[in-house]
Amino acid sequence: MVCQVSLFTLKPDVTPERLEEMMWTTRTTLLRIREILHLNVGKRIRESDPWHWFVSVEVESLDKLAIAQDDPHYFKYVREVIESSVDQSQILTFEMEPRKDVKYS
After folding, report:
1. How far apart are alpha carbons 101 and 90 in whole angstroms?
2. PROSITE patterns from the xrefs (predicted)?
3. Where are the alpha helices (DSSP H) in 13-82?
């Protein structure tokens, strides 16, 4: 099982209302992709935290992650949510099964 965590800072013109809309759009769009087994979306609680919000997705393997990222819903999401509102991002990918060799993820 693979989990990809994406951390984002927002452009200065993004309002709290727009962030709420982005979170809702993330949920409704990405959950349409069959390969995505689980999705988490959240906004920061403390103003001192460097990242404004995050998205994490769980998939069966890196191959399934690639398929999910090649889905038309994903392309639409990136264009309408990420490109229009995100200033910086950091994407981290993790293997979640103990003792599994990551080369087989």
Report:
1. 24
2. S_R_A_B_BARREL
3. 16-30, 62-69, 72-77
Q: How far, in Å, CA of 16 to CA of 21, rounded? A: 9
pLDDT computed for residue 98 by the predictor: 75
pTM, full prediction: 0.89
Residues 6+ apart with CB under 8 A from 27: 39, 41
pLDDT digits (tens, 9 = 90+) for 48-71: 999 999 999 999 999 999 999 999
- How do strand 86-95 and strand 2-10 relate by DSSP bridges? antiparallel
CATH number for the domain whose boundaries are 2-97: 3.30.70.100
For residue 37, what are its two tokens? 């087994």
Residue 49, both tokens: 């935290």
Spatial strand order of the sheet with 38-43 comes to 38-43, 53-59, 2-10, 86-95
